[in-house]
Specification:
CATH class of the largest domain: Alpha Beta
Strand order of the largest sheet: 36-35-34-33-32-29-28-39
Bound molecules: alpha-D-galactopyranose
CATH topology of the largest domain: TIM Barrel
Length: 743
């Protein structure tokens, strides 16, 4: 009620334009102490002997290696009353504390203002990867205006990296931007390459205020900041009556533009803005004639169930034929799904044909039956980057269905992987049991297999997973047998609480839990791809293959920011020599499309050019490609990113060599990957903030002086080049090419 009265008075006043700096930064001056004591919440506690610590970086990287458990952060801050005076809507004090890994309990001058990012439950089950935004009523006596305040944060880390890192750290009084929702989450639709449409929705999130003012939509060219399209219109909207605005700019060329939405409230003249990149589609539509895509080699172990769906684009219906299938396998000529079991080890060349009313495509597929699987990096979907712990049977089925209905299955996408959050506990015999969200794992895998797809699951070598669910510790053989019974094809095995078992592992200690599970997997009669997840500890790329891993994470968790993507992606050259058929470096899952670590999702915060960089670089790196978004909401742009067969062919190339950085100059880096046919795939990346010319010195490739170059995203030959190939590259963008000696 207080809030309502103050609003009524305030709207009569007139304010100047918004000052975007109406907040206090909270990313400096933090003190830190390991352990746990309730007295550390008190404002008067003497913390001068505590160590300084930086937020934005894990505590492991600041002198507390491998520490899991409780620790406290404290910061002193003056809260000026001018923040309150400057706010038009005076909506409450807002304290943003980044994303805390894993759980937290936060105090302002000794008063608890939040726990675990807002959810109820013990701090030990807190969710990392969620923005910590706590709100305090402006009348709350805990706030000491114009005086020293202490924010104390009790943090609990279950395993892996821990602490207050990434995200925004600031304190503000909530105002117009907190109550006006410029909802730009609807996808862009494409009517041809340069004509797009998009629906913007304006919502009033304050319970009592009706918004009126001006909406301005401006499209600019980021290369010269020139406005290429603009509209201004009067708008009004309330909580119950949002405003929908459909706009259709025609864009001068096929590149990314920036669109800015600005709402200016008429009484306060304060503005709220949102900005996003307008995507552009480069992948040409597949031909209506059949084309066989995906890996040319697939591998399986003798006597184990075999499943392979031949990826083919082109008009349906398509009829499939396969000559030379090894004994024990059969092909469904209608679906292109090959199933069965091959007892005899060997290398089998199968001549595959796909035909429709417009034509016919043929290709040789090599089926290797031996002791190796994952001959090319896995391609599929994983639930974590979208659904987090809220994953369920229905969401997994929806993803599998979308994999087929959106046509991704025709480009080689195969795995449907459940990450953390499916486990309930153990039955009286010690068997792992799925929770209520997964009523019947066996039925789920049968469904996924019936689509020609494979199913993955997740566990930890420790007693608990990173999400606090039951892990496999001391039940490894039993769990492997359960996975085999359920029809599982992929296991992601995530270190996490294994730190409780071995807090300071040496190399043998790091390897031990993976060797144990490897032995357990070797004991079942099923191919289960073994994906190690321990964030790169002990330079895992040097020994991941030796302990039987088919892939291993080389880094901590990715998120949908340029700093995360570029830090991970452009530092992979150190691991590159260790990748090869059957054993791959894993720089973590894809963050394109609608992501959010569940249950609520947002469009990837990467710009369109950053997303092109992400897919191009991951393909060059021969990385496992695991889509991390809600598959049922795949938009045109994301589909274009995930369905370019010439780009995906780099990832799935039979030679299995990972790209290396072969040249760098200023913001430009060139990464190159040798291909099985003798050609070289190269990405010219621009890590800078402006469009720049990138140059690839041809001599570095050792393909001769004169080469022919093909643009892979556009699937277009660019002609012959001597000495150097140059191209203009957008900020954070890429030009991805494949190069052969000139004919
Ligand atoms: C770790 C992993 C993530 C995800 C979560 C699940 O953080 O690195 O990829 O599997 O655990 O809790």
């Amino acid at each position: 009620m207080k809030f309502f009265l103050s609003l009524c008075c305030l709207v009569l006043l007139s304010f100047g334009p918004a000052n975007s700096q109406d907040f206090i930064r909270l990313d400096q001056g933090w003190k830190f102490h390991l352990g746990d004591s309730s007295s550390w919440a008190a404002p008067g506690y003497d913390d001068h002997s505590w160590k300084s610590i930086r937020v934005h970086r894990s505590w492991e990287s600041q002198g507390y290696p491998d520490y899991d458990g409780y620790a406290w952060y404290r910061v002193h801050v003056t809260i000026p009353s001018s923040l309150k005076t400057a706010s038009f809507l005076k909506g409450g004090l807002r304290i943003e504390l980044g994303e805390i890994d894993d759980g937290d309990e936060t105090f302002l001058n000794g008063t608890r203002i939040g726990i675990n990012g807002g959810s109820v439950g013990p701090i030990t089950s807190g969710l990392y990867n969620k923005e910590r935004i706590y709100q305090v009523n402006l009348e709350e006596p805990a706030i000491r205006w114009d005086a020293d305040n202490v924010i104390a944060v009790r943090v609990y880390d279950r395993g892996g990296d821990g602490g207050m890192w990434t995200g925004k750290y600031r304190l503000s009084v909530m105002d117009l931007p907190d109550f006006v929702d410029l909802d730009d989450s609807a996808p862009f639709s494409f009517q041809g390459s340069r004509r797009i449409s998009k629906q913007l929705i304006l919502r009033d999130k304050s319970p009592v205020y009706g918004m009126a003012g001006i909406l301005q939509v401006t499209v600019t060219d980021p290369s010269d900041n020139k406005t290429v399209w603009e509209r201004t219109l009067p708008v009004s909207f309330t909580a119950s009556r949002p405003m929908h605005y459909l706009f259709l700019p025609a864009l001068p060329s096929q590149q990314s533009y920036e669109v800015t939405y600005t709402f200016t409230e008429q009484k306060s003249r304060k503005s709220v803005s949102a900005q996003e990149g307008i995507p552009y589609i480069l992948t040409p539509k597949p031909s209506p004639k059949p084309r066989i895509n995906g890996a040319r080699v697939t591998a399986s172990r003798p006597g184990h169930p075999f499943l392979f769906r031949i990826p083919v684009t082109g008009n349906r219906p398509v009829r499939f034929q396969a000559k030379g299938l090894p004994e024990g396998l059969s092909l469904d000529s209608r679906t292109g799904i090959i199933t069965g079991k091959v007892d005899q080890a060997g290398s089998y060349t199968v001549h595959v044909t796909a035909s429709n009313s417009l034509g016919k495509a043929t290709r040789d597929l090599t089926i290797l039956v031996g002791d190796q699987i994952a001959y090319t990096p896995a391609m599929g979907w994983n639930s974590w980057n979208c659904w987090g712990l809220s994953v369920s049977d229905a969401k997994v089925r929806a993803s599998a269905n979308a994999m087929v209905s959106k046509g991704l299955v025709n480009h080689g996408w195969t795995y449907i992987n459940i990450d953390d959050g499916w486990e309930k506990g153990r039955d009286s015999q010690g068997n792992i049991v799925a929770n209520d969200k997964f009523p019947d794992m066996r039925a789920l895998s049968s469904y996924i297999h019936s689509l020609g797809l494979k199913m993955g699951i997740y566990s930890s070598p420790g007693p608990k997973t990173c999400g606090g669910y039951t892990g496999s510790y001391q039940h490894e053989a039993r769990d492997a047998a359960t996975y085999a019974r359920w029809g599982i094809d992929y296991l992601k095995y995530d270190w996490c609480s294994y730190s409780e078992i071995d807090p300071h592992p040496d190399l043998a200690g790091l390897q031990k839990p993976y060797r144990v599970m490897r032995a357990a997997l070797d004991g079942v009669d099923r191919d289960i791809l073994f994906s190690l997840c321990q964030y790169g500890m002990g330079a895992v790329w040097k020994w991941g293959a030796e302990v039987g891993g088919n892939s291993w994470r080389t880094t901590g968790d990715i998120n949908d920011s340029w700093s995360s993507l570029s830090t991970i992606g452009f530092h992979q050259n150190i691991c590159a020599p260790y990748a090869g058929p059957g054993h791959w470096n894993d720089p973590d899952m894809l963050v394109v499309g609608r992501v959010g670590w569940g249950p609520s999702l947002h469009n990837s915060r990467l710009t369109p050019d950053e997303q092109y960089t992400h897919i191009s670089l991951w393909c060059l790196l021969s990385a496992p490609l695991l889509i991390g978004c809600d598959m049922s909401q795949l938009d045109d742009f994301t589909l274009n990113l995930l369905s370019n067969d010439e780009v995906l062919a780099l990832d799935q190339d039979a030679l299995g060599r990972e790209a290396n950085r072969i040249d760098s100059s200023g913001d430009i880096q060139v990464w190159a990957k040798p291909m099985a046919d003798g050609s070289i795939a190269a990405g010219l990346f621009n890590l800078g903030d402006q469009m720049e010319k990138g140059t690839l010195p041809i001599g570095l490739l050792r393909l001769g002086d004169l080469v022919q170059v093909r643009d892979l995203w556009r699937q277009k030959d660019l002609g012959n080049f001597r000495d150097a190939f140059s191209a203009m590259i957008p900020s954070h963008g890429v030009v991805l090419v494949r190069i052969w000696p000139a004919k």
